[in-house]
Model the fold of this input.
Amino acid sequence: MALGNTDRSRFTFEHTWFDDWVRAKWEELTEPLIDKPHRILEIGAFEGASTTWLLDNLMTHPSSRMTVVDTFQGGMEHQNSEKYNVTSLEGRFRANVAQCEHVDKLRVMKATSDHALLDLRREDARFDFIYIDASHLAIDVLHDAVLCWRMLELHGNLVFDDYTWKGYMEDCYNPRIAIKSFLQCAEQELESKETESQMWVRKVPNRINATPNPDPDLFYGKSNGLG
Done:
C-alpha cells in the first residue's frame, strides 16, 4: 500500500528530529496499517511533525480519528532557551496541521497528560495506536505509559519516543528507566521492538498466568530475612 501525501515541504518545522531520525522507520513499521480505520492518540506534539505524518498516512480511512494532547509550553528542557521558541509553539503546530487534508479528524486537547488522560479514561476512550513523546522525565513517562496502556486495544501499538535520550546526567530522570520498568511490569501482555531511538510495543493476549505462592510464609520474604 502507498503512503499518503509525502510532500513535507508544505510544513514549517524549526526542529526536524522526526524527519531526520524516525520517519523512515515509521514508514516501514506502519505499512500494514495504511488505509485501515484507526483511533490514534498522541501525547506530546510539539510543532506537529509526527502529527502531520500521522494525519497524512494513517487517517485516510473515513472513520479514522486522532487525539493530540499537549500544553504547547514545552518540557523542562525547553524552558529559558531561545533555541526552542516556545512562545510560538502552538501557532506553529496549528499552522502545520492545517496543511493536512484530514485535519478535520483531529481533536486537540490543550492540557497536561495528567488531566487529559484521566478525562479520556472517563470518556471510555479506546485507541489502537498511541505515541508517547511528552515530558521526558522518567516519572512522567511511566505515568503516561500506564494510563495509555489501559486505553490501548488488544493488538494495538504503543510507541515510546526518546528511549535512548540522555538529557539528564542522572539516570533516574531519563525516559529509558521508565520505559524499561513498564516493559517489565507488563511483560505478560506485550511484544516489544527497539528501533534506533524508540521502543515499539504491541499489546497481545496475556501469555503468563499469575501463579499464587503456595507458602504464606514467603508472601513478605520472611524466610529471606526481609520480614
